[in-house]
Amino acid sequence: MSRQIRLNAFDMNCVGHQSPGLWAHPRDRSWQYKDLEYWTDLAKILERGKFDGLFIADVLGIYDVYRGNGEAAIRQATQVPVNDPLQLIPP
C-alpha cells in the first residue's frame, strides 16, 4: 500500500513572517502582500506545484515575548501590522 504526501504552503498576511532577510532576494515579492495579485499569483504557483493547500497564519495582537512586552516588535515592525486573512478569501 502506498502513502500519499500532502503538500501545504504557509504564508502570513504581512511583509515577512519566519524568513528574516528573504525580502532582500531579487525575486522576493512579499512586500506586495497587500495586493490581491500577490495572492492570486501565489495560488497559481501552488496549483502548478500540485500543492493541496495554503495556510494563512493569523495573530491576534503583537508578539510580546521579547523582554516581556511588544515594544521591540512594534519598533522593528516584526510581523506588525498583520492583516486579517479573511479579507483575502472570497465569500
TrEMBL record:
UniProt KW keywords: Flavoprotein, FMN, Monooxygenase, Oxidoreductase
UniProt GO molecular function: monooxygenase activity; oxidoreductase activity, acting on paired donors, with incorporation or reduction of molecular oxygen
Superkingdom as given in the UniProt entry: Bacteria
CDD domains named among the record's database cross-references: Flavin_utilizing_monoxygenases (cd00347)
Coiled coil location: none
Cross-referenced InterPro entries: Diverse_substr_monoxygenases, Luciferase-like_sf
PANTHER family: ALKANESULFONATE MONOOXYGENASE-RELATED, C2H2 FINGER DOMAIN TRANSCRIPTION FACTOR (EUROFUNG)-RELATED
Name the record gives this protein: Xenobiotic compound monooxygenase
Species whose genome carries this gene: Pseudomonas syringae pv. pisi str. 1704B
